Amino acid sequence: MALFDMPKSNYSGKFYVVRKGRKTGIFNTWDECKQQVLGFSGADYKSFTTLEEANAYLNIPVKKNKDYSNWYKVYTDGSNIGNTIYSYGFVLLDKVENIICEAYKGFDTNEYSKHRNIAGECFGVLSALGYCAANNINNVLVYHDYIGLKKWADGDWQTNTPISQMYVKKIQEFKNKGLNFEFVWVKGHNGDKWNEKADQLAKLGLETIEPTFKEIVNDR
User: Fold this and answer.
1) What does the pLDDT read at residue 64?
2) pTM
């Protein structure tokens, strides 16, 4: 693989290496880099302060990209009103992005209310995975805009709150049952239509404390 030589006039203090993304290579700015990696499942990227280190990392052999073409996708989100009511919404898609199910639910005051929309974010993922498990839907990419959902599930963040402890326990239960899923972070309110759809559903959830599932019949 050829070495990259960046014009010094564009140097931003860091070199951003993308080894797996929409485009691979070395980029001058985070804005250029994130266009290649945000929302790209399995993205591999890292920043360096010298071009030599960046080129070295770029030229390390990488594993073959995992094939996600037959995986389901679910977009989840949470919302809240004040310190009492919170909600979730999710939209589940098949491999060609036909909607399988839309769901939302609101929660009145309970032990998790103080966590506000974070509680909604957690219950959105758990409800979506519960739906998948109940309907024999496996291999699921979970798209979310709160990074803690992945960080807690992967053990990168400490679980020192009631909501995070409950969330991680339930995530492990799904794994133990054989449900295969991976997390993909997407930036919220950034034009992703399915992230926006999940946000809209979460806001509908604030209007009802009864779970609402709208299933769309598609061949899958």
Assistant:
1) 63
2) 0.70
